[in-house]
Design a protein that fits this description.
It is a single chain. By secondary structure, this protein is α/β, with parallel strands linked by helices. It has 2 domains: 33-252, Spore Coat Polysaccharide Biosynthesis Protein SpsA, Chain A; 255-313. It contains 11 helices and 6 strands. The protein has helices at 27-33, 51-59, 76-84, 98-108, 128-132, 152-169, 185-191, 201-211, 234-252, 255-280, 285-313, and strands at 37-42, 68-69, 113-118, 140-144, 181-184, 216-220. It has a 6-stranded mixed beta sheet with strand order 2-1-3-5-4-6. The longest helix has 29 residues, at 285-313. The termini are far apart. The relative contact order is 0.11.
Length: 314
């Protein structure tokens, strides 16, 4: 009996591929230039009535994709307004401070650009394009307010701190504390460990970017009267801002802080000693101590400068 050969299975023909839609010339380049981003709104407790308007206005901007990250809210209605406006709401289990909220927003963001702004009504969302568009060439873009847009006390305090920060960094700083800014997310992650959990993350991030050698641009913006009352106190937060400025500058350029103290102590000690020699024909102990203090502070600054340079090389 002859063996019947087994039938060979014939594979079904593959479905024909649909032709890819024709791309317009330059479409790929345009898509590559469109950055994705995250929007972190701060101060929503005092300005919670503005959140729907802020997000609705920003959502209409097609320059970049907006992802709203909102944290630290003690009032559930605020989170509901954010979600209703199309936001992805990220919550902290307890109030850690607005700086901690910003750091969580930076970590949670998936885009290339992070836009930070206050939601208390003082910033115009329509100006977001002018703040975000230079990011790429610049690592951070800060919206600089005019002195006339602030109260007299706050404008005077900001002028004093920006003057000190400008001298310590060697770069003119029009506005050190503006909360309206955009930055590359990868650059923010490099300095995120320096940002405090409480207030003054704008001051810290601005100084850290400048001292790290990143490109920082200031663009003029218009600030309106805020909704609600500010929690910033002149004396308490003024001292805090001063310490933050000294901390960041000492971290990157210690001699900027140590040398003026050393020089002042040395000059006062020498002048006091000369005056006593001329008048009393002796060198007092106070003069010798001031001269020694100037030398010791200078040596500490020199060692700190070497340590900071070694950290930069790493």
């Amino acid at each position: 009996m002859a063996a019947v050969p087994a039938r060979r299975k014939v594979a079904a023909p593959l479905p024909a591929r649909r032709p890819a839609p024709a791309r317009k010339p330059g479409a790929k380049k345009a898509a590559a230039r469109q950055p994705t981003g995250a929007l972190v709104l701060d101060k929503l407790l005092s300005g919670r009535g503005c959140i729907g308007l802020v997000f609705a206005l920003l959502a209409g901007i097609v320059f970049f994709n907006v992802d709203l990250l909102q944290m630290n809210r003690e009032i559930a209605r605020t989170a509901d307004r954010a979600a209703a406006a199309g936001a992805r709401v990220v919550r902290h289990p307890y109030n850690k401070g607005n700086g901690a909220a910003v750091k969580t927003g930076i970590r949670e963001a998936a885009g290339e650009v992070v836009l930070l702004m206050d939601a208390d009504g003082q910033h115009d969302p329509a100006e977001a394009v002018s703040v975000v568009s230079p990011v790429g060439i610049h690592d951070m873009v800060i919206g600089a307010r005019r002195a006339g847009d602030q109260t007299l006390t706050r404008a005077a305090g900001n002028r004093a701190f920006t003057g000190l920060a400008s001298w310590l960094t060697g770069r003119p700083i029009p506005d050190l504390t503006s909360g309206f800014r955009a930055a590359r997310r990868d650059r923010l992650l490099e300095v995120i460990h320096l940002l405090p959990n409480g207030f003054s993350y704008p001051t810290t991030s601005c100084l850290a970017f400048l001292k790290a050698g990143f490109n920082v641009l200031f663009v003029p913006i218009t600030a309106r009267p805020r909704v609600g009352t500010s929690k910033i106190r002149v004396m308490r937060d003024g001292v805090r801002f001063l310490l933050i400025i000294l901390k960041i500058v000492t971290l990157y350029s210690p001699l900027k802080v140590f040398f003026p103290v050393s020089a002042a102590s040395l000059l006062v000690g020498v002048a006091y000693g000369i005056w006593n020699v001329v008048r009393y024909d002796k060198i007092p102990m106070g003069s010798a101590l001031l001269i020694q203090l100037g030398v010791v502070v200078f040596l500490f600054g020199l060692i700190s400068e070497q340590i900071a340079s070694a950290q930069d090389r790493k």
